[in-house]
Design a protein that fits this description.
This protein is α/β, with parallel strands linked by helices. It has 3 domains: 28 residues, no CATH class; 172 residues, Peptidoglycan recognition protein-like (Lysozyme-like, 3-Layer(aba) Sandwich), CATH 3.40.80.10; 124 residues, no CATH class. The chain contains 11 helices and 10 strands. A hairpin with a 6-residue loop joins strand 4 and strand 5. Bound molecules: zinc ion. Zinc ion binds next to loops.
Length: 356
């Protein structure tokens, strides 16, 4: 019996009046496209772009952490007001995975340099730098990603640093934080963060990890500063406040009334807990990525230089300009701290600067 006869028999048996073609269309609209995924829960059609992408356009996989649980992510991508989506959402507790956007369509998860068009996005339930990811989640995600790589000829490689500005070159498996911004520099996302074990994950995918971040949980942590403290890190807090647009009269390394009230204003503006104390939640809002920008000087660059010079003993100019001397000091610090060496002071490097 041929395939078609089987389907006709099935239709007849269930008393369907639909044509074979209509059934095929319905199936195409709702079927999952990966052998490991558990179901298809379509994102709202206003949250992604219909397209007809094939292997020539799908070069990257972008790994995200959703800042919420699986149920929250699914609900959000199905909410017409979200304006975001991803191809997959995976639950941390047991690895249950839903496809939400078809591979051919362009999900909205990695802005900037056209990476949405050239990638497939995977959202994992949990919180960046906090969640301990389960074995079930790692395995399910790795199975899906490995088969995506096979299907679309995506390199099973996790590269280091910011991905190429032109998304149509290279390819690989990257964290959201590696997607270049529209100016080709780093973006301000940090996921999947320090608790994501890239070594283990890339082993499961059957690929290679050239991007570090393999220590999964043995990384640095943000120290806490509050009124009355005097420390090199308080200079960083003051310079980062300036970088964020909060002018101060004093840059003196002293956590006084001016720093406290300005931090309270900053916390209020960012909709985080208002307590006047700089702990992990505030640091994550406060730090600004320092890199080889074209529009320096930056207060953030000045702050990183100040810390490298006075806090870590690097004899470099503190002038807000990112040049070869600054890059070399950052890379040397990253080497000694066991971090990815890329000359970019992002989340992990700021954290290590403050923690060491
Ligand atoms: Zn993300």
């Amino acid at each position: 019996m041929t395939e078609r006869n089987t389907r006709r028999s099935f239709l007849k048996a269930i008393g369907a009046t639909a044509t074979v073609g209509a059934l095929a269309d319905t199936a195409a609209a709702y079927h999952t496209q990966d052998p490991y995924v558990d179901d298809f829960r379509p994102a709202d059609s206003s949250n992604y772009t219909s397209a007809s992408r094939g292997a020539e356009a799908i070069d990257w996989v972008v790994i995200h952490v959703g800042e919420g649980d699986y149920g929250g992510m699914v609900g959000w991508f199905q909410d017409p007001s979200a304006d975001v989506s991803a191809h997959y959402a995976i639950r941390n507790s047991d690895g249950y995975a839903s496809q939400m956007v078809h591979h051919e369509d362009k999900a909205w998860h990695a802005g900037g340099q056209n990476y949405n068009y050239y990638s497939i996005g995977i959202e994992h339930g949990g919180y960046t730098d906090q969640t301990q990811f389960t074995d079930a989640l790692y395995k399910k995600s790795a199975n899906i990603v490995s088969s995506l790589c096979d299907q679309y000829n995506i390199p099973k490689n996790h590269p280091s640093g910011v991905a190429p500005c032109d998304a149509s070159t290279d390819g690989g498996i990257i964290g959201h934080h590696q997607v270049p911004e529209s100016d080709c520099g780093p973006n301000n996302h940090t996921d999947p963060g320090s608790t994501w074990d890239w070594d283990y994950y890339m082993d499961l995918v059957g690929g290679t990890n050239n991007g570090g971040g393999g220590d999964g949980g043995t990384s640095y942590s943000w120290p806490t500063y509050s009124y009355g403290d005097q420390a090199e890190a308080v200079y960083s807090i003051q310079y980062l406040l300036e970088e964020n647009g909060y002018p101060l009269d004093y840059h003196d390394g002293i956590y006084g009334t001016e720093v406290e009230t300005t931090i309270e204003q900053f916390q209020s503006d960012r909709n985080i807990t208002v307590d006047g104390i700089v702990g992990p939640e505030t640091w994550n809002e406060l730090y600004v990525v320092v890199w080889d920008a074209e529009d320096d000087p930056w207060w953030a660059t000045y702050g990183a230089q100040h810390h490298l010079n006075y806090g870590q003993g690097y004899d470099i100019a503190v002038d807000g300009y990112y040049g070869p001397e600054t890059r070399s000091a950052i890379e040397d610090f990253q080497t000694s701290a066991g971090l990815t060496v890329d000359g970019v002071v992002g989340h992990d490097t700021w954290q290590a600067l403050m923690d060491i």
